[in-house]
Specification:
Elements lengths: L1 H14 L3 H19 L3 E4 L4 H14 L8 E5 L5 H14 L3 E5 H7 L15 H12 L3 E3 L8 H4 L4 E4 L27 E4 L7 H11 L10 E8 L2 E4 L13 E6 L12 E2 L5 H10 L4 H5 L7 H9 L4
Parallel strand pairs: 1-2, 1-4, 2-3, 4-6
Antiparallel strand pairs: 5-6, 7-8, 7-9, 9-10
């Protein structure tokens, strides 16, 4: 009798969960599965909005104890300083271990070779990540990728199996029936786990609003010199100066996503609050990567090839 009552109460509680609560519960379950099944995982934390959400979910999954994994960032050396400062301060606030490895070090070792000094380092992060996985013996890396970002990511499982070379084969992935995940790997193999895979950009912003999460300032509107290039806005910086004949405009912009300066574009916006960003996100018809990436402009073939080579 008591067991039946308890079971009915549990069903009622689950039935009253709203959309964000369901997503949160699923993500916390995935984080705990990674911690339970994997011997040496790491959580990828760049200081960007998706990884900030992951940190909050990890807090809810494991506090008041310490996280059962370190934080890890693969730094291109060309990141926006506001984001790097936020990364360091947030890790310090949480009193969690932050491991940083740089593409610059891979260049010095000769494992990354640039075609030109101003080439985007974004795609080369995969080399440094694979070197870091080998250095620390990580058997799983938890990331903030979402299926709505672009078509190649939409093919990825929540527990994405990577072979001994770090490669991803979309045709050789494990079934995930009834939310049963298999993290078993042989030496050298790796799992990439994506707890917010089923979230959308709008879900992320609504969760940030609900939780009152702090963000790097460049997510909100600010004045920035830019040039128009390939239908996108390229920031004018020391790394990406205006060339002869290009027109520099001072525009009110914000970033929808953050990454390497050489390939991450802002969008025109006057949104200075999370609520205004939610309003813009709810009405946009352009994907996050399609509006902000100068390197591949959300090319499915480009991203899929990178992932086969070990990219996040």
């Amino acid at each position: 009798m008591n067991a039946s009552v308890t079971e009915r109460d549990a069903v009622r509680r689950h039935a009253t969960l709203d959309h964000l609560e369901w997503l949160e519960a699923e993500a916390i379950y995935i984080l705990r599965e990674v911690a339970g099944q994997c011997s040496n995982p790491a959580l990828l934390f760049s200081g960007g909005k998706d990884s900030i959400v992951l940190l909050r979910l990890a807090e809810k999954a494991f506090r008041p104890g310490r996280f059962p994994f370190p934080l890890l960032h693969i730094d291109t050396g060309h990141n926006y300083p506001e984001v790097i400062d936020f990364r360091d301060s947030r890790a310090c606030q949480l009193n969690e271990r932050l491991i940083v490895r740089s593409v610059e070090s891979s260049i010095a070792r000769g494992t990354v070779r640039l075609k030109s000094a101003n080439e985007s380092r974004n795609k080369h992060q995969s080399v440094t990540l694979l070197e870091t996985i080998e250095e620390f013996g990580f058997d799983a890396c938890i990331g903030g990728a979402r299926r709505d970002e672009e078509k190649a990511r939409a093919k990825e499982r929540i527990f994405s199996f990577r072979d001994e070379f770090g490669g991803w084969d979309p045709k050789n992935q494990r079934p995930e029936l009834w939310d049963l995940f298999n993290a078993r790997v042989h030496k050298g193999e790796n799992i990439r786990a994506f707890p917010i895979s089923n979230w959308t950009e709008l879900d992320v912003w609504q969760y940030i609003a609900r939780e009152g999460l702090s963000l790097p300032s460049i997510y909100f509107t600010h004045l920035r010199p830019v040039i128009r290039k390939k239908g996108l806005l390229q920031p004018v910086t020391g790394l990406t100066p205006a060339r002869q004949g290009e027109t520099v405009e001072l525009l009110q912009v914000r970033f929808r996503t953050v990454g390497d300066i050489t390939c991450t574009a802002p969008v025109e916006s006057d949104a200075d609050t999370v609520e205004k960003i939610i309003g813009e996100t709810a009405t946009t018809t352009i994907t996050e990567r399609g509006a902000t990436r100068l390197d591949d402009q959300a090319s499915e073939a480009s991203m899929e090839q990178r992932k086969k080579e070990g990219y996040f």
